[in-house]
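Researcher: Good morning. I'm working through a list of sequences from a screen, and I'd like to move beyond sequence-only analysis. For each chain I'm collecting a predicted structure so we can compare shapes side by side. This is the next one on the list. No need for commentary yet; just the structure.
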Amino acid sequence: MKNYYGIIEYAHHFIRRHVDQGDICVDATAGNGHDTLFLCELVGENGKVIAMDIQEIAVNHTKKLLRENAFEGNAKVILDSHENIGKYAREESVSCIVFNLGYLPGGNHALATKAKSTITAMEASLQLLKKNGLLSVTIYSGGDSGFEEKNAVLEWMKQLDAKKYLVIVSEYYNRPNHPPIPVQIIRLK
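Model: Good morning. Structure tokens for this chain:
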């Protein structure tokens, strides 16, 4: 068993516990496609993964990665903002939705997620999750992407109804330079 808990392994640890073969999942910020591929592996050939990104380069990277790994059949990759996530799945039908906030790794740092559209997307996401569904959010912040989105998103999460949602915010406490913040939101009802 691997003992290393980098941000990806940490998020995937929780995602694995909420996704079964045949489920529907959404990668709301597809980026380079690694979470999309991971979700495809979990849902299997009878499941469905919807991946979206606002950048054409991200959509192309994701499609290429899925094609190289023979997973393009159960994934739909969409060029659209995560604000429109509600158009692509029915309410209470999704097991897991993944967000990686910030900018595309290796891409233009000026093109980053923003607080307003992210919160709109997450509000819609909560309606898509089925009971015990997971909203996995990794918040990247720092010099390039600033702290406005991080602060706004964390404040929004703090206001979620504790009877309907369990919000777990973790921290890489001894890491320098504003390490990513992994957040898990579980729909209870």
